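Q&A log
Question type: sequence-to-structure
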Amino acid sequence: MTRSAQDLDLGILLGLGYQQFVHELREALAERGFGDAGPSYGYVFRSLDLRPMNISELADRLTITKQGAAQLVDEMEKRGYVERRPDPSDGRAKLLYLSEKGDSALAAARRFHRGVERKLVKTHGAAAVRNLRTLLETITTPENLGDPRWRAPHV
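Response status: OK
Response body:
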């Protein structure tokens, strides 16, 4: 027996839609040479795109431990997505920056996001996409909209 989308709870449909989006995003990034980007890299990309920061600031921003942030940054640095540079205001500290590869991966992800939205507009119309955005915004709290982990565009 096959279930229809109408039989599924709304939350399941939202989750499945997001999973499909992420799957297609990862495929698109891999096609553009970023197949080694880990699932958490987008959070770091968006954070460092705002401004350089140290490991402690990044950990606070992502609400993870300093050890977790350091492991993530170490991996991203080995893969060429981030760079550590001396902090001009504290010679002992290092600041994290997106590398050229990190900037390129973020730009590719942003193009993917815009492309998905354009495709939805073409398929369903601008009004439907505006309505979808409005509906999603009504179930998102202002706190979540301001959370750097979720701020659009996602990677």
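Response note: The chain has a mean pLDDT of 89.
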